[in-house]
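ok so i was messing around last nite and threw this chain in just to see what happens. nothing serious, just curious
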Amino acid sequence: MKKVQNIVLFLSILLIIGLAYISFFNVYQTDDYFCSYATRKFGLVQCFIDTYTQWGGRYFGYSLNMFNPVFYDSKTILPKIYPVFLMLSFIGVSALNFKGYFNYSLKESLKKGFLLFFFYTALLVSLPEHYFWVTGSNIYFVPVILSGILLYSFKKYENSKRKIWFYLSVLLIIMLMGANEILALILEGLLLVTYYQKRNKENLFLVLVGTVFLLVCFLAPGNFNRMGEVEKGMVKWLKRIAVFGADTTYVGLKVIAILPLFIKVFEEELKKITAQITFKKAVLFWSVSLIPLLFTSYILTSIARQFECILFYFLLTFSLLLYFKFEKIKKFWWVSLLIVFLPELKIFPEKYSYFNIDFNGGNIVMELLTTDLKEYEREMDERINIIRNSSQDSVVVDKIKEVPRILHTDEMASVKEQETYVNDQLQKYFNKKYIRTKE
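result:
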């Protein structure tokens, strides 16, 4: 077990060094500009009202994005350091929980944090949007880190009974219910399961708080404004069943592929947990992952970046079930390790490209070996400078030639194409009537 842990630890350290290097060339993208534009034009209060009533109920995530500093950050410093800060925060918060729940030393806890980061990265559906898009990371990555702090707060309150930890838990629940819908559903399910197993006033209060703010998020007028028209009757339900089947199959296959390695690396922790709970309780906790899968299929949402919370939670809970019944699967850890570095399995068309299973290892290696990241950064900086310094209302710029695999980038429409949201956001931010790329 130690040998395998050391291998994965070494790879994890190389991984974060590689991602930190890639981050050095990161720049602002798409919604970063729009959030800054909207806040400066309408102010924080009006911007919050507009997003809640017209766009969606992520009251915490969208509010966090209102503070995007692109207008004041002419040297694009934040996109270069923010991803690394969040990655290290994930490792640090994970280490706190390993120390709190398993009584490990600080050194051992940090080691476990690095190991967990390796698996978290491997599961990401869209690594560029999750790590390197400032706006996207505030919606999808920051809440995961805050969930880790919430888990640590629960443990501290359980051990000390100091009210400060309970109040912090309440605050974090309120924030997380407005972070993104998938994580909110998982958290609500966990609160209900916790109350079902241990019925006391504190757990009841947390369930009530969670439910109230879950409704605040889901019943936002903006959510209903963005709902499109779908077929009625049997066709609609057949589509929902198909989406549920496809999404669940994707999640199951991707998690199962790396489970042998995960079980081998975290065998000690799984053994301690399974000694304290029954198989039925483990199934109950795992079943919470079905709640967001049912919800996304109901609204006909297929695999995309928002599924990353489901994948991570599915991995953590399903590993317990397999350890109970099929512990020997850990013998195939080497197969999982090989799979992580396989290239992306491209079998679906562009419209359904998120269903192409990719564990990110191969793309990260290819990014470091083949992409001229410095040239990409130069091209992006040159584009923004041309748009910013132009005195004309209409600006045409060159296409980005050095397109990265890992850094988040979304190209604008050309002069012969219909305007996209990328063009629109830059036009609003720079106060231009027309921005396109050359053909």
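not much to say yet. DSSP finds 21 helices and two strands in the chain.
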